[in-house]
Write a structure and sequence with these properties.
By secondary structure, the protein is mainly beta. Helix content is 10%, strand content 61%. The protein contains one helix and nine strands. The chain has an eight-stranded antiparallel β-barrel. The mean pLDDT is 88.
Length: 236
Amino acid sequence: MTTIKNCKHICLLVLALLLALPAAAQLGEERHNLAIGVNGGVNLSSVSFQPRIKENTLKAASMGITMRYMSEKYFNMMCGVQMELNYSQRGWEENIEDGSENTYNRVMNYVEVPFMAHLAFGKDALNRGVKFFVNLGPQFAMFLSDKENMSDNWDTSARPGGVTEQYGKAVETKFDYGIVGGAGLELSTGIGHFLLEGRYYFGLADFYKNSKKDYFERSAHSYIGIRLSYLIDLIK
């Protein structure tokens, strides 16, 4: 537990420093570019459990609205912020190796809000062309609902690790938060901006209670996301 707490503190400190960089870079050319659009993609999701549960990657959907504001150009780097409002599915799929041919996954639905520093390198946002970009920042989410999917021949009597507490167990902490970061390419055209991004989310909150009297010490989300976004300029 001490290691996890130290990791949280270090991540939050690094995040605060990175978010402060664009605000500190006031020597660049000012920009006032506002763009809005939609995003969609897939989450390759898993959950960090302690005691450990052996898992496969769960493929789930994500979609939402993206808003981006570019504030300045500093040398060859364009600085801004990006915020999203997403419907995001997460969860886990278990790798059950007890010879029973059981299958199990849980799909968990969230509304999530990432708020990220957006750094772009390449063509100016006002011009057509290709840019490389990096996103990094905090992400907050609220649990909506979930669904357990299990095989018809469901039987937990022969689990090798003996971890069965998760089955039928309701989410106990609905508010989720963590750090999200990603990188990708943006193609700016006369009809808008097309962005392809890969991102990683590292959850800092547990959705099951984790006091000494509780079964799970850790139950935090993580996922690799693949996103395709389309933005149009409202202000140039």
